[in-house]
Predict the 3D structure of the following.
Amino acid sequence: MKKVGVAILGLGVVGGGTYKILAEHRDFYKKNHNLDIVVESVLERNIARAEALGVEASKIAGGMAEICSNPDVDIIIEVMGGVEPAKTFVLAALNAGKSVVTSNKELFCKYSFELEKAAKKNNCGLFYEASCVGGVPIIRALTDNLQGNKITSMIGIINGTTNYILTKMSCGGAAYSDVLKEAQKLGYAEADPTSDVEGYDAAYKLSILSSMAFHTKIPYTDIYREGITSVSSSDIFYGKQLGYALKLLAIGKNGANGIEARVHPAFIRAEHPLASVNDSFNAVYLTGDCVGEVMLYGRGAGAAPTASAIVGDVIYCATHSNYVYSAFNNTEKADPSVKFVTNFESAYYLRIAAKDKAGVLSKVTSVLSKNGISMERVVQEKDGVEGAVPLVIITHETHENSVKKAVADINATDIAKVEAVIRVVS
Ligand code: HSE
């Protein structure tokens, strides 16, 4: 039986969940994997939290140096989140010859180059399945199983908090702030929920996943990002009537014109498999040239699903010595030959507050047509306020810049104002 000593940095929601699973499943791993995985050390300032989990006092480390010099520790699990001190600790672990398993998407997204360099130099493993999409095994699918494909597109619901919020807002009309509090209570949201609701968390994950899928570094700073804080329940309602579900989508495409990478709220047809991914569930819908379409679905947030990915990495690390690294050309910056498409093509949902008088609709449609935008559907709703009626338009596929120009032109008139612009994924 191989003994594997691990240390856990941080006993928050995910660290605590990992500790519990390792303790509860110890015999199961012994029997089925021939591995005795023992938590040799934890780094946690909140002693009461460690004690509540049943950690022996002798296993609570006084600092990172103690863990790095502990010969019984083989693998260090970093579940602290954020860049510092996690980055310093992970580099210290790798330089001490310890393999690392991390759930830290922000750290891996921003510093994968530096971390991987240290891991290779010290011949250590660096595993990050838990950094993206919680318990859904997307990283290993990209590093291993789907390697034979040229992946052309990836559309994902990769943030559990926002998916939970949008699901509750669309089902029961619950208020945004109440649902956010519930998501925090359930352990889905980051310590600072801005990262979730403003789309940073999804952008970090898309940076990692699209770099892997397209084999080239896609820095998160090259990802167009919009969160869900300005989504209104009336748009969710109108969209639903037109047969759409609203989701925070992460989209990566590798086409003839270059690479597109964006995170924003989007309407998706109710029949699309991603439309029924609800609550804290996540999914990634990929298209590869050999495999065709593949969707990986499961829980993307929460203690046990994320711990599932962490423990999977611990077992993989303990049973492999020929480490596989990021499976993309992990450069420090984006390769200068890569073109990022910003004037991308999409259909759009526009909600316009229009004056309720003759000629307004034709004025609006003529502005759209002057900008080369053709309409698929137009609905005039009845419940307007102060002499204005909501005009809901779904356009055919057009360019982002044409829509921006048309919105500015409509807003320059005194008869209509564009109140919402939401991309529609066909
Ligand atoms: N805050 C993240 C989410 C946790 O809501 O998806 C998992 O990365």
